[in-house]
Amino acid sequence: MTRRPVPARLGIVSAMREELAAVLERITGTHCRRAAGRDFYAGCWHGREVVAVLSRMGKVAAATTATALIESFGVTEIVFTGVAGGLGPGVKIGDVVVARDFLQYDLDASPLCPRYEVPLYHRARFPADARLACRLALAAAGALADPAQLLGGHAPLRQFGLTSPVVHQGLVISGDRFIATGEDSAALRGALPDALAVEMEGAAIAQVCHDYGVPLAAVRIISDRADDAAHIDFTRFVTGVASRYSAAIIDAFVSSPPQRAALDPGRLNR
Questions:
Q1: Domain spans of the chain, in order of start
Q2: Quick one: 9-258 is in which CATH superfamily?
């Protein structure tokens, strides 16, 4: 007897309500179901089954959300979208980082195992799914080709000092701290020089997805440089810029066909 393939169901996760609201506007036939203390919104996006949810901030909240998406809603892949602080050289406010790997920068079980390594996993870094990450990077590049049109004019660009957004790909680091001082940012860059962005959820979701064998991709819009130089109105940036970026990128991602060819990261980092 031949088994029918399980239909793909995409889980979409955001850590902030403003980002989730922009995503929910694109989903049709939405119905809400509550699980694990969260509201999960199931519906269709470009004819594809999706389940969108607010994870809340922090690694534990993110891990709980990812587990519920997999166990209770049967998602077959997950995309995370949200804001992050920029760390890497040339990663500026308004840019986009698509994760290739995730690491918990605040994990240290030494001397049992090396700093950052997750006990019993024998690894510190958890990779994003390469194919999903390629599709997400291509979607981001296409969606942000004309940021002024996406944001409804040049005023938001001037307000936040934004230039043409660049899509970067590489390491995203996570921890249960909001990094907002130059000292902390410099310490992270010194310890993890290849880190492009810092946030509070991605590595936890990556570990859960690794355990379940569920592909994961993540896109982060850079809201600040994770240091004392950040002077933007964070809430206004999330509402007026990041949420629109996120919705447009995920829209392009959902509507795009799977890409079989590998994507050269350098194509989008120039």
A1: 9-258
A2: Nucleoside phosphorylase domain (3.40.50.1580)
Q: What are the CA-CA distances from residue 225 to residues 81, 104, 213 (Å)?
A: 18, 19, 33
Which residue out of 18, 19, 199, 227 is catalytically annotated? 19
> What's 267's DSSP letter?
G
Query: Helix or strand or coil: residue 159?
Result: helix
117 is catalytic: no
Per residue in 208-267, pLDDT (tens digit) is: 999 999 999 999 999 887 666 555 677 888 888 889 999 999 999 998 876 543 444 444
**What's the predicted TM-score (pTM) here?**
0.89
What span, in angstroms and rounded, lies between the C-alpha atoms of 203 and 187? Answer: 19
- State yes or no: is 77 an active-site residue: no
Q: How far apart are CA 36 and CA 17, in angstroms?
A: 17
Per-residue pLDDT of 143-181, as tens digits, reads 998 888 888 888 888 888 888 899 999 999 999 988 878
Q: Which of 95, 101, 129, 224 is catalytic?
A: 224
Instruction: Name the packing angle between helices 59-73 and 202-212 (round to 10°).
Output: 30
